[in-house]
Design brief:
11 helices; eight-stranded mixed β-sheet; 8 strands
Amino acid sequence: MKQAAFDSRGSCIRWTEVPGAEPARVYLHGLGSMSAVYHAHIAARPELAGRRSLFVDLPGHGISDRPQDFGYTLEEHADAVAAALDEAGVGGAELIAHSMGGAVAVVLAYRRPDLASRLVLTEANLDAFPPRSAGSSGIAAHDEDEFVERAYARVLKTVGPLWAATMRLADPRALYRSAVGLRRGSDPVMRTLLESLPIERVYLQGGHSGELAEREGLEAAGVRVVTVPGAGHNVMFDNPDAFVAAVAAAA
């Protein structure tokens, strides 16, 4: 386990790391998740083994610190990841990022272009104010204190055992603020940032999730959109072969 301070109080973002060849692959998780849980089995596959791999837990999640006075916006999450990569001596990394982590990765690549050479995004949030059915919208619909004191326990019972297993390790206040920040989106919004980035970009959409909104615009901007059969939101679990193939297929 390694760590780097990400705020003025010395709060630390932490990651586990597998040594290997550069450029590094940096794995980022979604809202209420953990990077190693969602991606270690992918990084260990023969097609991907041998590369330096960092499994970073965002502030408030997993093994990272959870300061109560932190905003947990997308920009703040991205800056925290930048602090981790600077501490690790990582530059020009491939960012492999899921859901909210994908939104963070887009913002990071925009704010610190020296840190990212490629994006592989899995069902990343690209737009502000997603439908109420989205996990972030359901969480953000509450008042912060009401969520922390009452709704968090209810949410853990309704999200299913897989998500609950990692969500219960996230700080409730950090989870809430992360959801609010994700729902608000970045400025400019993530989709606009993604379309503007001058690096290789791959977007994985689970076939069970339906058609990706405004797919044509992304493809016109050079984003390679891959619909993964037999997969929902968690493509890395539902169809790991297709996920690995997408990560391995660098242009």
